[in-house]
């Protein structure tokens, strides 16, 4: 099945919420891109009901995992971090390119790092590119923060390479 159509550009920043259901990092489909999106649809409905445009999952260990259609990067003490693939997150292409082009530490830690310690955070995906997060649950984050701004700059400088420009 192929669906094609124009997509509206995403706003520069997004609000996200943590959902009450876990990603199963030990499940048969963990990390795979499949059309089995029922859990994501339910989670996204939860996010929209809470005024957010993306829902984020922790995994069974309570570690940060990913959004319904996005990977997550965040900053603690000036260090850019993102969950490892062992967290159960999809190995997103945008995630990989940001690791290659900018760099970040891959680390798994409790999702509360986002509501207690992170100074900035952003979503990555093929449609959102690098989208700063301005609110995580009830916590406001400066968005875009300085590192997010740098990553966005690198992204838009290098993105044309992907289009053969
Ligand atoms: C569950 C999930 N995580 C992350 C991503 C981001 O991947 P990409 O950067 O390849 O678009 C997607 C994209 O659809 C996804 O479905």
Describe this structure in words.
- There is one protein chain.
- The chain has 165 residues and is α/β, with parallel strands linked by helices.
- It is 25% helix and 26% strand.
- The chain has 4 helices and 9 strands, in the order βαββββαβαβββα.
- Strands 1, 2, 3, 4, 5, 6, 7, 8 and 9 form a 9-stranded mixed beta sheet that branches.
- It is globular, with a radius of gyration of 15 Å.
- The site of pyridoxal-5'-phosphate has 13 residues, from helix 2 and strand 7.
Describe what is shown at a glance.
It is built from four helices and nine strands. The site of pyridoxal-5'-phosphate (PLP) has 13 residues, from helix 2 and strand 7.
- Ligand types: pyridoxal-5'-phosphate
Low-confidence parts, pLDDT < 50 over ≥5 residues?
none
Q: Could you tell me the mean pLDDT?
A: 96
Number of helices: 4
Structural class: alpha/beta
The biggest beta sheet is recorded as: 9 strands, mixed
Q: DSSP strand (E) fraction?
A: 25-35%
What percent of residues adopt helix (DSSP H or I)? 25-40%
DSSP summary, beta strand count: 9
Radius of gyration: 15 Å
Q: What is the 3D shape? A: globular
The succession of helices and strands, N to C, reads EHEEEEHEHEEEH
Q: Please give the alpha-carbon distance between the first and last residues.
A: 29 Å
